[in-house]
Amino acid sequence: MMDSKWLWFMRMAAMSVLLLLEGCRWCTIDACVEHERVALLQLKPFFNHYNEFDSWDELKGSDCCKWKGIECNTTTGRLIGLSLDSMRSGYLDYWYLNASLFLPFKELKRLYLTGSGIAGCVENEGFEKLSSTFRNLQFLDLSQNHLNDSFILSLSQFSSLQYLNLAYNLLEGKWPHIQGLNNLKILKTLDLRWNQMERFQSFKDLDAYLLVIYVDMAIKACGL
């Protein structure tokens, strides 16, 4: 008799655990991951020239998923989108970014750094250090900065990129720098408008998998 009651109890307990696990498949996280919140606060001083990040509260436990410019995965609470567009006075000062500050955001899919006055990266702290971490990065917007051809090489290992915007920079289209774009095998959209690419004659050497290439009309006249 005791054995049958014990067996019934064990079955009920097992069913309860299974139901709990199944229910958690549909759970949502109400707060961001703490170490990502801390990492965002470390970024804040570099991009808060216009005091746009008042919502980035330094109080421990503050939900960074609700902060301006932040998009989180509703299931895991991990950061998947980060928009720092025009949050720094890019027309007044140029500076060098420490890209390692983005390393904690391992699930990032979209990163927007438009109009930030970035002239490159701190030595040994460039975007190449992120390529092994950012396996899911699909959209990268670096338009309206002060980047030159050498910067392109640091992007050549972001194999998941589908959209890359480098418009309004200081690119000249020199080889082998721009050849690094050929490593981006699933890149579909490349924006190179308003650069200094008079020396660049043709995009024929870039692979045909690119569906959309935005360039200046002056460059198109060179035989694109």
Automatic annotation (TrEMBL):
Domain Leucine-rich repeat-containing N-terminal plant-type: from-to ranges: 35-73
Statement: the UniProt record of this protein carries the keyword Lipid biosynthesis: no
UniProt keyword terms in alphabetical order: Leucine-rich repeat, Repeat, Signal
Secretion signal, residue range per the UniProt entry: 1-26
Matching InterPro entries: Leu-rich_rpt, LRR_dom_sf, LRR_N_plant-typ
Keyword Repeat: yes
Pfam families per record: LRR_1, LRRNT_2
PANTHER family xref list: LEUCINE-RICH REPEAT-CONTAINING N-TERMINAL PLANT-TYPE DOMAIN-CONTAINING PROTEIN (PTHR48058:SF23), LRR RECEPTOR-LIKE SERINE/THREONINE-PROTEIN KINASE FLS2-RELATED (PTHR48058)
Record's protein name: Leucine-rich repeat-containing N-terminal plant-type domain-containing protein
Organism: Gossypium barbadense (Sea Island cotton)
